[in-house]
Amino acid sequence: MRVLRLAREYNLLPCEYINKKPRDPEIDYLLTMALDIHDKDLLCSCGCGFYRVDSHAEDADGWFEVADDAICFARAAVEVFQENNPDLEPGTLIRVVDTRIADAPVRTQRNTGGRRQVSVDDDTLG
């Protein structure tokens, strides 16, 4: 199922993702439908990512805990922005921008094999 999810994530048909040549439309259809049926029939509809049989079991109380040890600072920036700007226009697309890229030093590209040197932005930030 992981391969099918990755194909869907990259907007590729399964045969394209696994580089099957020639592409078989019937296999693409069957694998895509299998993933859809699997997800709709077995996974919980609330979006938690767990199987319904586990997350809705009568004796499942205490099986799951929330881990709050990881912080997504990009999501935190969005939440703080939304909290500070409650009067946003409907439909406003909020996107997170990594400001480190704008602050990165400009370096000159070397070893160009005699071609003209081009100034490039440093996006390694390491």
Protein traits:
2 strands; mainly alpha; single chain; 126 residues; 40% helix; 6 helices; two-stranded antiparallel ribbon
Quick overview of this protein structure:
With about 130 residues, the chain is mainly alpha-helical. The protein is built from six helices and two strands; from the N terminus they run ααααααββ. It has helices at about 1-10, 15, 25-40, 50-55, 75-85, 100-105; strands spanning about 105-110, 120.
General description of the model:
There is one protein chain. The protein is mostly helical and 126 residues long. Helix content is 40%, strand content 5%. It has helices at 2-9, 14-17, 25-42, 52-55, 73-84, 99-103; strands at 106-108, 119-121. Strands 1-2 form a two-stranded antiparallel ribbon. The longest helix has 18 residues, at 25-42. The model has no long low-confidence stretch (mean pLDDT 83).
Low-confidence stretches: none
Sheet/helix structural class: mainly alpha
Q: Can you give the helix content as a percent range?
A: 40-55%
Distance between the termini: 35 Å
Number of helices: 6
Q: What oligomeric state is this?
A: single chain
Work out the number of β strands. Answer: 2
Which overall shape is indicated by the principal axes computed on the Cα atoms?
flat
Query: Helix and strand string, N-terminal first?
Result: HHHHHHEE
**Can you list the strand order of the major beta sheet?**
1-2
Percent of residues in beta strands: under 5%
Return Rg in Å: 23 Å
Largest sheet: 2 strands, antiparallel
What value does the average pLDDT take? 83
